[in-house]
Amino acid sequence: LTNTNITDAQEMETIWTILPAIILILIALPSLRILYMMDEVNNPSFTIKSIGHQWYWTYEYTDYGGLIFNSYMLPPLFLNPGDLRLLEVDNRVVLPIEAPVRMMITSQDVLHSWTIPTLGLKTDAVPGRLNQTVFTATRPGVYYGQCSEICGANHSFMPIVAELIP
């Protein structure tokens, strides 16, 4: 009662398997080139290295010969009126607007994540690996972020504050 010609269609199965694979390759190759070109920066105005430690960040302005500082969260006793609790730091990262900035991000101890949601930035800080992100801010202001990786006890107490000035 069955027709053997219907169940034996190996040529058709080969075509509908190989044809989508070829289409996916044709879509992927130009996309990989574009992704690679988006990550490269020819001439950034600033290069800042951010190192994640347990409960604080260290910033190095590498273009200015050894300008290094730590950024700790301010305890509640040291907050001024109007400061944001658990988000304010003692030393902010100061960056220019309308200039390409390269952030090189790494970690010393465990996985961290350098995240400022309002700037659209999130880059993982991995021990032994140097990741980079590039951005150009268009509006001045103070931008807040936190470590968004579960990097241990009190990981949310690693705030990031970037002050963008003209």
From TrEMBL:
It is found in: Mitochondrion inner membrane. It is a multi-pass membrane protein. It catalyses: 4 Fe(II)-[cytochrome c] + O2 + 8 H(+)(in) = 4 Fe(III)-[cytochrome c] + 2 H2O + 4 H(+)(out). GO terms for biological process: ATP synthesis coupled electron transport. PROSITE patterns: COX2, COX2_CUA, COX2_TM. Gene3D superfamilies: 1.10.287.90, Cupredoxins - blue copper proteins. Residues 43-166 form the Cytochrome oxidase subunit II copper A binding domain. Binds a copper A center. Its main location: mitochondrion. InterPro entries: CcO_II, CcO_II-like_C, CcO_II_C, Copper_CuA, Cupredoxin, Cyt_c_oxidase_su2, Cyt_c_oxidase_su2_TM_dom, Cyt_c_oxidase_su2_TM_sf. GO terms for molecular function: copper ion binding; cytochrome-c oxidase activity; oxidoreductase activity. Its cofactor is Cu cation. One of its GO terms (cellular component) is mitochondrial inner membrane. It comes from the Eukaryota. Keywords: Copper, Electron transport, Magnesium, Membrane, Metal-binding, Mitochondrion, Mitochondrion inner membrane, Respiratory chain, Translocase, Transmembrane, Transmembrane helix, Transport. Residues 1-42 form the Cytochrome oxidase subunit II transmembrane region profile domain. The chain crosses the membrane at residues 15-36. Belongs to the cytochrome c oxidase subunit 2 family. Component of the cytochrome c oxidase, the last enzyme in the mitochondrial electron transport chain which drives oxidative phosphorylation. The respiratory chain contains 3 multisubunit complexes succinate dehydrogenase (complex II, CII), ubiquinol-cytochrome c oxidoreductase (cytochrome b-c1 complex, complex III, CIII) and cytochrome c oxidase (complex IV, CIV), that cooperate to transfer electrons derived from NADH and succinate to molecular oxygen, creating an electrochemical gradient over the inner membrane that drives transmembrane transport and the ATP synthase. This is Cytochrome c oxidase subunit 2. The lineage of its organism: Eukaryota, Metazoa, Chordata, Craniata, Vertebrata.
